[in-house]
Amino acid sequence: MRKNWFYRLLFSYMPVFIAVCVTLLLITFVSVRQLSDKSAIKSNEAVVRNAVQLIEQSLRAIENAMYDTVSTDARVAAFYDGSDPSYAGAYPAALALGNLKSRMPLLHSLYLYRPEDHTVLMPTSISRLESFPDQAYIERVYNSDRRYTWGDLRPLDETTLAGKRADVVSLSKISDLRTTGLLVANIDVSSLQTLLSDSTDTSTGYLEITGADGAVIANTSGAKARAGQQERKKLVTAEMPYTGWKIEGGLLQPGIFGWVSQVLYVSVSLGVICVASGLVWMIFVTRRHYRPVESLVRQISVFSAKRSAILSPAPGKRDEFQTIGLALDSLWDQSNRLSRENEENRRFRKTFLFRRLAEGRTVAASREALREAEQLGLWADEGMASAVVVEIDRFFVNVCRNYTDPDRQLLKYALQSAAEETVRGAGFPVWTDWLGEHRLGIMIGHRGDSAAGSQAEVPLERLRSWAEASLPFTVTIGVGAAALRIEEISRSFQTASEALAYKVPLGLNRLIRFRDLPEGGRPEIVAELQRIKEISRAFRMGEPGWREEWSLLLASMQGGSLGGEQIRHLLFVLLYHVQREMIELPAELQSAWLAESGKLEDALKEGETLAEIDAALTAVFDAVGERLLQWRESRNNRNVLQEVKTYIDANYADPGLSQAMLGDEFRLHPTSISRLFKEEFGVKFVDYVNSVRIEQAMRLMEQTELPVQDIAEKVGFVHSQTFIKIFKKCTGYTPGAYRKEKTGAG
């Protein structure tokens, strides 16, 4: 190679060298800018977290105050009795609302709604629903499920609610279980905006909250940003877990910052142009000086295309053939990569189609669905099929706490593989996929055999036994109703899920068939509710009979006539009644109950079987019952009052039974008997006497055919009208209606 050829090559690549240097400088500048952006993002993340914590704590405090008001304030409960519809009668409840509003400065307005007579009560007024400014919101939220969450932004056009117009977000809660009345609280968004402004420097940054519908609820952007003099640069977006809103944070870029960004982008663009120009120049010069070699490579490629392996060059002259070999290796690697991607796509399509069929989001019998199933190698022939749902027991309590995510995925893979092998080994077409974090869906084909549905349960039972013996958890399997056609498979999955709901009364680690579940609509729970009231009363009175009643209630729930959700709702009603009974006792006993009742709520939420719930409830009731016993034994008059109670139980039929009579009998002042009785047993003397008499009257009505007048006299009532009035107050029925309900007599 001559010198002049050397210089030509050297100077031809010089522009490329310069372009590379310029590009490196630009990359350095961009890297520095990126580090600055990362620092800004971290700072904004901290600001957003503080803002979320501040706002959600404020809103939680309001909700907790609302819950305390409706659950503990007797004035609110008295408003829903409806005995006095005037404002004077509702004034205590209005005073309670006023106290709540004065304690919560974020509140714009709040009111109570009584659906029985469509009355709306505010702290300073009472009105009918049809004349109330917020009528549309009440009607909408009363018939929807959004009355337990903070609503999105809405304007209050009227000024009668709080004396000023404002945009608000609202929260409505059930304030009375009997009438499903509402307590509605409205938050002024300007107050939220003030909280946001206190969380960040509004001169350099901004925060913005948007609702679930995408509307802006509050933001800290000033007039300059809205006028376009400042640009907003979004850095952080986060979900607010309590409200479901989104919060966005970022920087305001005025003046010099916008100019620097533009210069940066122009510089990067110039760098890209320089690199592209250098590449074009290098390609042009290289092709110009490589044309002789290019001609030789073309000839070798043509020769190689003819697959001539006879005239192979000597081993020392294989440079060009090595290039061709590398190209072939690259093509082979690309082909393998495409094959792997295609297999991953197939798995994704199978999962997607499986979930669409399970959820009923596609027409399973359509020509497109069948063709797609055939292409993916899935069972799609017509005929009977069954859906099965395998649920990992105590997944969130035990498995998630004791195993890492990779270990959980490995265990789930083992369970899924075992399910496929077990069912397929029994001769059934099978298709499996995960429907949730701890639920495995299985679709089993029967191939037109109606008896195959029962036969398919044999490998499922083997799968359950294998999981119990080989895995660190057990599984409960729900078998759905058979689907006569593949398009009915979504209904089969739904019935399998319904069968799984009965593992609460039936227990874990079992096979539950939908066809074995009780039929005939909703179960009768009137007796269970009456038993709940008796458990609550007996527990508060310190009577051991609550254990027998609880055993009867537990046996009724274990009979399988109630599903898991129904059982949890029934037990939450029990907690509510016990809470009401404990309110009648001194504050120290109420505190003991509140300290222990949280354990029961956790057991109802996390317990998967009645045995777990029974153990938790018995432990809590025993602990609180021991406190009640110690308190009663510490009272000076306990023995005397126990004798008074025993005397009432034995002489309830005496019409002359009164405080004066008991005072003479036990040498107590008549006026102190009722007070001491209330302090000891949490119930008034008169109410207890009436409850004993009514219980005996109920027994006589169920076991005898005596007239109402005779029964009233036998239990100690002189006048039958008084007996009928008290009977209806205690039971909700007239004596005749009660006898007809219990015995069927006309």
Approximately how much beta-strand content do the residues carry? 5-15%
Poorly predicted regions are: 1-6, 307-317
Instruction: Calculate the mean pLDDT score and round it.
Output: 76
Helix segment count?
Answer: 28
Short note summarizing the structure:
The chain has 746 residues and is α+β, with helices and mostly antiparallel strands. The strands form three sheets. The chain has a six-stranded antiparallel beta sheet with strand order 3-2-1-6-5-4, sandwiched between helices. A five-stranded mixed beta sheet has the order 12-13-11-14-15, sandwiched between helices. Strands 8-7-10-9 form a four-stranded antiparallel beta sheet.
Describe this structure as you would to a colleague.
The structure is a single chain. With 746 residues, this protein is α+β, with helices and mostly antiparallel strands. The protein is 61% helix and 12% strand. The protein contains 28 helices and 15 strands. The strands form three sheets. It has a six-stranded antiparallel sheet, with helices on both faces. Strands 12-13-11-14-15 form a five-stranded mixed sheet, with helices on both faces. Strands 8-7-10-9 form a four-stranded antiparallel sheet. α1 packs across α5 and α23 crosses α24. The longest helix has 70 residues. It is extended and about 130 Å long. The N and C termini lie far apart (124 Å). 27% of the residues are buried. The N terminus is likely disordered.
